[in-house]
Design a protein that fits this description.
alpha/beta; Udp-n-acetylmuramoylalanyl-d-glutamate--2,6- Diaminopimelate Ligase, Chain: A, domain 1; UDP N-Acetylglucosamine Acyltransferase, domain 1; flat
Length: 343
């Protein structure tokens, strides 16, 4: 959509224009905004500083009271408005084309309107869905498939027998279908255990930069639809993640972990193998999980436990120094009393 005026922007955001129409500049940061620019007020606490900016137009939530001579565009959901604005003003990607440097196997199937970047390798019997994009230096290996309108950024590796749904986004450096870490120790050293299945990823899922998803042993490692995984995560072999799961960053899952729908694991959490995290459960940052979490519960700590138990433990821990000082005082008093009695 071509948005050039305040009224057009208000219409685009399904908002209400409070003030006069005028030509708009860009979506800007308050510190560098010009009078013709506009600012999106995401957090009410920033409003005093924003009102001091040069921008004459603000996009703001309906329920925020403000006294100003600036023009306001009131919206029902400021977070959705912000997302819409970023998409509106994002620089477009280059038109779909197949770079001549790409290596595409003769049996691979590329549906219409596919973009293949420079030095991409697409293996035997691979399938790229309509409208999908594969960034430069990425590898789509044998028998793997990517659903329609997916975006595979630069330097992504999708190994053999991995299948992605529609509208999947994979950030740079991610590896889908890596070998899991499995070895049997013998007197003569370690014998490698192969994982001979693949990976299945549902539609509308996103995988962060440098995240690794290991392939399954006999059945695929699975990630459900709508799941969002941050950067630098490890999803080990045979893990089963449900729909709309959130892994926020640097999460490490060992093998055969089950995470049910809508669960959230905050950054730098880790698990042992074969645990289940129930539907809607939350594991807070830097926790270490060694047992199942029931549905809907929030756990914390290392080892992780229900959050109220962990908070009580942390409160006691913070008081240890005071208790030590009190104990020392009592010991000194006792010594004094003993000396007086002996004399």
């Amino acid at each position: 959509m071509n948005v050039q005026t305040r009224q057009q922007l208000s219409t685009f955001l399904q908002g209400e224009l409070q003030g006069t129409d005028a030509v708009l500049g860009r979506l800007a940061d308050p510190e560098v905004a010009l009078e013709s620019d506009f600012i999106c007020v995401l957090r009410p606490k920033t409003l005093p500083d924003i009102l001091k900016s040069k921008a004459a137009t603000l996009v703001i939530a309906q329920d925020i009271a403000v006294q100003t001579d600036k023009t306001l565009i009131r919206v029902a959901d400021i977070e959705l408005a912000w997302i819409a604005l970023l998409r509106l003003y994002a620089q477009p990607l280059e038109p779909a084309n197949i770079d001549p440097s790409a290596s595409i196997h003769s049996t691979a199937i590329l549906e219409p309107n596919v973009h293949i970047g420079a030095f991409v390798v697409i293996g035997q019997d691979a399938h790229i869905g309509t409208g999908s994009r594969v960034g430069a230096h990425s590898i789509i290996a044998e028998r793997s498939s990517i659903g329609n309108n997916s975006l595979i950024h630069e330097r992504v590796t999708i190994r053999h027998d991995c299948h992605l749904g529609a509208r999947v986004l994979i950030q740079s450096g991610a590896v889908i279908g890596a070998d899991g870490f499995g070895f049997h120790r013998t007197a003569n050293g370690y014998i490698r255990q192969e994982q001979i299945s693949g990976v299945e990823i549902g539609s509308d899922t996103e995988i962060g930069a440098n995240t690794v998803v290991d392939r399954g042993t006999l059945e695929p490692t699975r990630i459900g639809s709508g799941t969002k995984i941050g950067p630098n995560c490890v999803i080990a072999h045979n893990d089963q993640l449900g729909n709309n799961v959130i892994l926020i960053g640097a999460v490490g899952l060992t093998g055969s972990v089950i995470i049910e729908d809508d669960a959230i694991l905050w950054g730098q959490t880790g698990t042992i193998g074969h645990v289940r995290i129930g539907k809607g459960a939350v594991l807070t940052a830097r926790s270490a999980l060694s047992k199942d979490i029931p549905a809907g519960e929030t756990w914390r700590g290392s080892p992780a436990q229900p959050i109220q138990q962990q908070l009580r433990l942390e409160a006691r821990t913070r008081n240890i120094e005071k208790l030590e000082q009190r104990l020392l005082q009592l010991e000194q008093q006792l010594v004094g009393v003993t000396r007086q009695r002996d004399t």
